[in-house]
Design a protein that fits this description.
This protein is mainly alpha-helical and 152 residues long. It contains seven helices and no strands. The protein is 65% helix and 0% strand.
């Protein structure tokens, strides 16, 4: 059962579980990025969720073990169908909307910022240093805007 106080901050693994379950439900159903999860990777959320929760728990709280290679599965997907800036931008949109819909506070802000950094890093590594960070479509947040926002 999903319970969260929208005004409360992300406080631990239970909150992350709710955020990630809601995020992946939206991502799987999304026409732009859903096929990466459902058709190409054949992601089983019940298997994937504990692993990705470990990742986020480590990223936000340094309280979980995560020793997997997060880049390898993305590289495998990218070799089947290249992931574009628009794909990563859509991931960021869904991630931010999910976090904003459930939580407020420093950990929630850190989760959103970390998600943006991860998207930029993965895109740059997969597409190469000269890759375009532009996207297209109404409501799309180009990765270039995220890159500019994250600069000091």
């Amino acid at each position: 059962m999903e319970t969260c106080a929208a005004d409360a901050d992300i406080s631990g693994r239970a909150d992350l579980d709710v955020v990630l379950r809601r995020f992946y439900t939206a991502a799987f159903a999304d026409p732009r990025i859903g096929p990466f999860f459902t058709e190409m990777a054949g992601t089983d959320l019940d298997i994937h969720l504990p692993r990705i929760t470990d990742f986020w728990e480590r990223a936000l709280f340094r309280s979980a073990e995560y020793r997997r290679d997060a880049f390898a599965p993305h590289a495998a997907l990218n070799s089947s169908r290249p992931m574009t800036a628009a794909d990563f931008g859509r991931w960021v949109q869904l991630w931010r909307a999910t976090v904003d819909g459930l939580h407020r506070g420093p950990n929630a802000e850190r989760a959103k910022a970390q998600g943006e950094r991860i998207a930029l890093s993965l895109h740059k590594r997969l597409a190469g240093p000269g890759a375009s960070l532009a996207g297209e479509g109404p409501g799309f947040v180009p990765l270039a805007a995220l890159e500019l926002r994250s600069r000091p």
